[in-house]
Each structure stands twice: as C-alpha cells, then as structure tokens.
Amino acid sequence: MGARCGLLGFLLVAVVLLRVRGAHALNQTCDADLEALRAFSDGLEGKDASAGLVGWGAGDGGSCCSWTGVSCDLGRVVGLDLSNRSLRGVISPSVASLGRLAALNLSRNSFRGQAPAGLGLLPGLRVLDLSANALSGTFPPSGGAAGGFPAIEVVNVSFNEFAGPHPAFPGAANLTVLDISGNRFSGSINTTALCGAAQNLTVLRFSGNALSGDVPAGFSRCEALSELSLDGNGLAGSLPGDLYTMPELQRLSLQDNNLSGDLDNLGNLSQLVQIDLSYNKFTGFIPDVFGRLRKLESLNLATNGFNGTLPGSLSSCPMLTVVSIRNNSLSGEITLNFTLLPRLNTFDAGSNRLSGNIPPGLARCTELKTLNLAKNKLDGEIPESFKNLSSLLYLSLTGNGFTNLSSALQVLQDLPKLTSLVLTNNFHGEEMMPMDGIKGFKSMEVLVLANCALTGTIPPWLQTLENLSVLDISWNKLHGNIPPWLGSLNNLFYIDLSNNSFTGELPESFTRMKGLISSNGSSERASTEYIPLFIKKNSTGKGLQYNQASSFPASLSLSNNLLAGPVLPGFGHLVKLHVLDLSWNNFSGRIPDELSDMSSLEKLKLAHNDLSGSIPSSLTKLNFLSDFDVSYNNLTGDIPTGGQFLTFANEGFLGNPALCLLRNASCSEKARVVEAAHRKKSKASLAAVGVGTAVGVIFVLWITYVILARVVRSRMHECNPKAVANAEDSSSGSANSSLVLLFQNNKDLSIEDILKSTNHFDQAYIVGCGGFGLVYKSTLPDGRRVAIKRLSGDYSQIEREFQAEVETLSRAQHENLVLLQGYCKIGNDRLLIYSYMENGSLDYWLHERTDSGALLDWQKRLRIAQGSARGLAYLHMSCEPHILHRDIKSSNILLDENFEAHLADFGLARLVCAYDTHVTTDVVGTLGYIPPEYAQSPIATYKGDIYSFGIVLLELLTGRRPVDMCRPKGSRDVVSWVLQMRKEDRETEVFHPNVHDKANEGELLRVLEIACLCVTAAPKSRPMSQQLVTWLDDIAENRSLIIQ
C-alpha cells in the first residue's frame, strides 16, 4: 500500500508540475516568492542543510526558478518538490506565502511540528504531499480553516503523527485522493463530511490510525470511490448495507479490525478487484456469490471465524491470483474447479479442517507459486499431476495424513523452481526413507521431513541439493552414520537431525561448513513472508515458527541420538553458528578450548554425554552465550567465573560429581587442595578420597531430601486426593503419563476440570502467548476465571523451566505480582495456573486498543507505574531469595479489573543465591527494553531491570513503542528521541495528547525525569527500585519531589 501511495503521489505531482511549469520566460522571481523560499531555507536545521539543493542560498540575482525542486510559471513559483532530501526542522509558515503554489511535495523527510496553518488559504493548491515525516498536531491545523483548500485534488499526509479527528475537507469539491494512513487520528468516521462536497473522491486511505466505532453508513454517497482502506484501526460491528451499493469500488481493505457479521451481500460489488477482510471476527459461511465478482484478483479472508465449505463460485473468478482463507474453521473437501483459475498465484488454506484428497485439477494452475495446505485433515497421495506446477516455489503440507513419501518426492523432484518443501508430520506407518530414484530438487533451499516416523539412513540423493540451506529430518527413526558429504553442502547452515538413532562419530566435514563460516546467502525467492513455515521440534507437534529461510538461526542440532567420539575442536571455525546441541549422546573426551572461537554462539548444549576434564575457561569469551548445559557428564574442577558464566544457574552443571558447583573462594581453594592430593597420593588413597567424597555427597543429598520432603508434604496437604491418586496410578504405567497437581486453595479441583474448562486446550481459549508457552483462559466449576500457561519445548528444557518457575513463584507473593495458584503435569505437558487478569496487558492498552486514550487516563497510568514499581521492588529487595525479573516490558505488566498492575513472567528468572548476585535466563530480553551494556557483556543485573522499567515509563508517557521502524529516522527509538527532545527543551512535546494537559504537566515532567534516570547509559547512575516506589508515591500524593 505504501508503495502504491508513493507512486500515485509522485505521478500526480509530476502531472501538475508539467502542466504549470513554464519555460522560464521570465528569469526574475516575484520578490515575495523569493523571500518566502529564503525563509523556508533559513528554517532548515543542521549545518549545510541546503548543501544538496542547487541554487539554494547562493547569490542568484533575484531568481529562484533554477533552484532544485522549484518550478515557475511567468516568474511565479507554482511547484515545490523537495521530497526525500533528508531535510529536517519545522516547515516554515512562509510556504503559505507562495500565492501561486499549485503543488507542494515535502514527503520522506524529517520535518516536525505542525503543518503551516495558511496552506488551506492558497487558492490554487491542488497537490499536497507531506507524507513520511514527523509532523504532529491536528490536520488541517487549527487556524487553517478546515473549509479551505478550495482547489485541492490530492492530499497525502500519511505516516506522520497527526492526531485528533480525521480531516474531511468539506469545501474541496475537486478532491480525488485523500491518504491519512499511519497517523493517530481518532474518533468515529464522518462520512457526511467526507462525501458531502467531494463527489469525485476516488481513493480514501485511513489505514493504521486509531479510528473507532462502526463502519458508518454513507460511503455510498462517494459515488466515484474506487478504493476504501480502513485497515488497522479499531472499527467494530457489522458492515453497513449501503457499502454494498458502491458501483465503482475496486479495492476494499478492512483487515485488522474487530468487524463481525456476515458477507451475504458481497456479490453486489461487481467491480471488486481486491478485498482484504483478514484478522477480523466475521463468522458463518463464506457466501457463494463470487460468480458476480468476475474482476476479482485477490481475496483474503484469513484469521476469521468462517465455517462451512469452500464456495464453488470461486471458480467463476477467472482473474483470481491470490486466495487466502488460512486460519478459519472451513471443512469438507476442496471442490473448486481450478481449471477455471489459470492465473492463480497463491492458494493458502492452511489451519482449517479440510478433508479428502488434493484435487488433481489444482495442477492446472500453472502459474501457482505458493501452496499452503498445512494443518488440515487431508489424506491420500500427492497427485501425479503436480509435475505440471512448473512455477511452484513454496509447498507446505504439514500436519495432514498424506501417504507414500517415495511417490511424493518423485512427483515433486522435477519442479524447476521449488525452493521450500515442508512435509512434517505425515507418512506415519511407512518404513523407509526413499533411498534412490530421486535426482531432482535442483532449486531446493528448505527441506523439512520431521516427525514422519521414517526409518533407514540419510539418503544419498540429498548430496545433489547444491542450494540446500535448511534441512530438518528430526523426530524420525533414522540410523547409521552421518555421511561426510552432508557437511560439504556449501549453503547449508541449519541442520536438525535430533531425536533419531544415528551412530558413529561426527564427520570432520562438519567443521568446514561454508554456510557456518561465512554469512549464508539463502535467497527469498518464494516471497512467502506472510505464510508461517513450521519446524516441528517434538512429537507433540509443538515447535518454532520461521517465515523465511533467512530467519532460521544457524544451527547444528544433533541431540538425542547415539553418536560417539570426541567433540570436534574444529567446531571453533564455525563463527556464524548460533546453536550447537550435542546433548543426549555418547560423546567422550574433553570439551575443546577451540569452541571459544565460535563468536556468534548463543546456545551450547552438551548435557547427558560422557565428557571429562574441566570446563575450558576460554569459553568465557563467548559474549552471546545465553544457554549453557553440560549436566550429567564426568567433568571436574571449577566452573569458570568470567563473562556469561556468572549468569548460569547450577542446573546446567548437575550430574558431574567432581565438578565444583559452589562458585566462590572457599570452593576454589578446596578444589586446589583436592587436586594437589590427587597428585601425591596413591591409587588406594584416591579410592579412599573417592569413598569419603561419595559418603559426604550421599549425606548432603539425604539431608536435602529430608528437608524437601517435609516442604513438599507441607504444601501438598491440601492437594486434591483424586488427582494425587490418579498420578500414582498413571506413574506405574509410564513416566511420561504421570500427573502431579498442586492447588493450595482448591481441594475439589481435578485435572478433568482443567481439561473441560479449556475444551482440552482448544485454540479458541488462547488469550496470549506468554514466556515459553501459550496462555489459555479457563473458567473453573465454581465460576472463577484463571489463566493456564501451557509450557512448550523439548522434555528436558521444559522440566528445568517448569521447576524454575514453580519454585520461584512459590516464594514470591505480593499484591503487584501475578499469583501462581497451582501447577500440574499431564504427560509431557506442564501447566501453570495463574490468577486471571481481567484487563489484559499494558501493551494491549497502550498500543493496540484504539480507545485507550479515553479509558487509560493519566491517573490510571500513574497508578500502573506505582504498582509495577512496588512489584519490582519486592522482587529485588524483599523476596527471599531476591529475584531478577529479566524481562520487564509492557506486555509483562497485566491489569486486573481495577487497572491495578501485576508483574508477570518473572518465574523463569534464575534465583539469586547468596553467592551469586547476577542472574539470567535463556532469553536475553526483548528488543527495545534491553540495556545498552548488555551488548558488551550480556549479564543481567538489577540495574538492567531498572533500565527496562524506564522504557515502560516512557511508553506510559509518550504512547510510543520502544522501537517503531515505521517512524522516520531519528524518532524510531523512543529513548534517543526523548533525550534529544529534552536536549532541545521540548519535553512537553513528547507526551501523548491524551494525557497531556496543563493540570498534570508538572507530574508528567517529574515522571519523565525519573524515566530518564532509569535509562541513563551508566548503570551505576540508575536508581534502586525502592527509590522508584518512593518517588512515584510522592508524585501521586502531590508532594514535592526531590530526586537525588
């Protein structure tokens, strides 16, 4: 849309300038015009602001018609086009003195402040393009007379920061294009004003604002309207009947609102070319009316509540290129006559309930590039006719019941352009991975055959896939050695062979993989940005989601196999590798020092092997390492204490009897004494020392067991007896099916109640995605509502995260924290049961709701800041042991029915032990909230939490997200923008209009001062959390504030 908008504006400006530009018959410019342009130039900021503008500021003898961007007619300035010139400052009011100006284009610069009030008084102004700047205030500006602009034809003020009611231009009879997309205009849409005088209005773009209410009746009075874009607002309700009577409407974009109802009258819009109603709440059947929409090219109804079958009349739209009906509840067979859809480019029907076979006629769509049928109930074989899909780039059939993998590969191998093939979770019941007969896939970049229960070895035909970048054949039953040629594929940078039965040693070729030594060059020719590509990480079907091959983290995932031999020192050459997972194998020998050269490494997993020796201290050089696990090996000596090792909890080191887990001086001294003793004593002495150590360890473990048993018994005395009985019964059958339920205040709650209250975790009950899992809303039998977090991940990682969160939250009880009410284990699932927060997250109210300005006033925002600070202070100073949150952000601040703040998702933070004052988790924080010092040494600290809290304060004050790439350069990062505005003594301009007024300006400025202290670059200069509580309470009580 932005590209269309920019092109249209450019063409219209060009047409106007060609019509009004003279041949410079007169070299002299009107003195008033010359002075106006000089005043405009003087208002530009920065040294040599007009250096790239030929003629500006030079001695020109009184003429400006040859200046860059200036067009004249008979000596008068009629056009000014300075678009995309990196200009900044305030648009000088002198521009409105150019009395003959017909076209003004200042788009794609960094102008701020209000638009000149006098623009509406220019009698001949026909084209106005101020798009992609940082202009604010109302538009047209106050004092500019909304009824002005008598000659205006094109107005484009998109992607600025204008607010207030949307402009209507009731006196502009010639208006044809109005684009106000990407601003902060709010309130309802006034069709009476829009369609009153402007009978020739053809393009209306209101996308990405804060408009609310219903889509009003009255658009039908804009009889010439061909494009209506209202997407990305907060519009609700059903569509008005007269919307379906617009004779010229070609493009209708209403996606990403809260619209509902049916579309029964859609067939009346016979001129429609494009319709996008995705991400709304439409329900019922998709109407079978497309036989009347013969010009339709693009249909997007994704992510709604449609059910029933696919309407057969879609086959009557010969111009269709895109059909997206993903993420609905459509059922039945795919019965479209694809022979009648020769131009079809994209067909996305993923995440529905479609059944039956793939219709062979789909292959008649020879221009088809993207086909997504994932997560349905389809079965049978891939049709032989698919050989004819010569343009196909992307094919995902994940999560169906397809059979005959060998036939499928033989059918698809000769497709010349196929780059991504995802067949995860199909072909169950078959035995062998096809070993021969496959010679094609010359363009293949992404190949996923995970979780298909395949046996055999890695097929040799894979070595012919020269462009392969991503290979996932995890969760199968493959065996044998890993062939050396796999490491010789030049573009391969993501390999997942985990959860198979591979044996032997790792091939040396894995240490020379070009895709992991230099940046991979995977292309993105499939152009499937909006179609999720799922990589299944376990047999339950949960996994990670990537949208492009380039989004995959460079990885070697070889866990849960039978591999042996040493960890290759040559891995140190893989400087682009992010994840190395060799856990749950039989590797032996030492951990190579050379691994410290893997400068991009984020995760190193070596647990459950037979490694020996010490942990190399050189690994402390890995500044990006956030996940380190060497548990259950035979490692000895001290744990390194530098760099990221200060942040790792003991869980990653357990199961190494001779490894010193206490990272302090006395422990180090003990280690040196033991080491000296080892050198001097005989084997018999060594045995005695070993026996003594073992006895001591057993004694300590016994004492620990007794203490923990008492604690568990004291907490379990109110557990549901039925649930505990079920757990005992199930544990006798399988460890994976065991159940443990803790629910301190609900004696009668059973696991059946939990399953029933979420309809067995139906996706309709999902209310969010919290840390490490989905969150479901549940209503218990007694009517109380709770939130249930269903953790996801592989089994071992789930166990650690589950235990960490439960143990941490059981110690943290405060009115400004989200209360953990219980937990349970169902098979491989771990569930955490929280108090339900009626009003959702602060992020939702600040950045998603369109009416948040009216409902989330300054007093509520201040109270939210106070409550969040109290919760943080409790974690930092009162909770025993002290806890770092590690991921403070607005989406982790939940609001109850009274808008009281509660901190969430702190349970995965590591406990701060007496000997370790720094804590971290596997997650390194969230973009925009991460303190700057983490770039050099990403060690989480209390002052890091304070920085993140300061970002939240800035969100409350400004209404902006921490980082917004849609804004012009210089204002995308809220911290840099606010600090620059303070430097220019323009603090009051940063406050969101909905909270800023003279009555509370003093409080706003004080909170802004606190926020700036929190986000200062020097961690030592940031306040403590208890200081924040005191200061914010002082502001709320209207006492004088002294920050010291």
From TrEMBL:
Keyword hit for Nucleotide-binding: yes
Signal peptide residues on this chain, from the entry's feature table: 1-25
Subcellular localization, as worded in the UniProt entry: Cell membrane
UniProt topology in membrane: Single-pass membrane protein
SMART domains registered for this protein in UniProt: LRR_TYP, S_TKc
Regions that span the bilayer: 686-708
GO annotation, cellular component aspect: plasma membrane
Recorded catalytic activity of this chain's protein: L-seryl-[protein] + ATP = O-phospho-L-seryl-[protein] + ADP + H(+); L-threonyl-[protein] + ATP = O-phospho-L-threonyl-[protein] + ADP + H(+)
The EC number(s) this enzyme carries: 2.7.11.1
Family matches, as InterPro entries: Kinase-like_dom_sf, Leu-rich_rpt, Leu-rich_rpt_typical-subtyp, LRR_dom_sf, LRR_N_plant-typ, Plant_LRR-RLKs, Prot_kinase_dom, Protein_kinase_ATP_BS
Residues that, per the record, bind ATP: 789
Keywords in alphabetical order: ATP-binding, Cell membrane, Glycoprotein, Kinase, Leucine-rich repeat, Membrane, Nucleotide-binding, Receptor, Repeat, Serine/threonine-protein kinase, Signal, Transferase, Transmembrane, Transmembrane helix
GO molecular function: ATP binding; protein serine/threonine kinase activity
Organism superkingdom: Eukaryota
Tagged with keyword Transmembrane: yes
Protein kinase domain mapped to chain residues: 761-1032
Membership in a protein family: Belongs to the protein kinase superfamily. Ser/Thr protein kinase family. Belongs to the RLP family.
Name of the molecule in the record: non-specific serine/threonine protein kinase
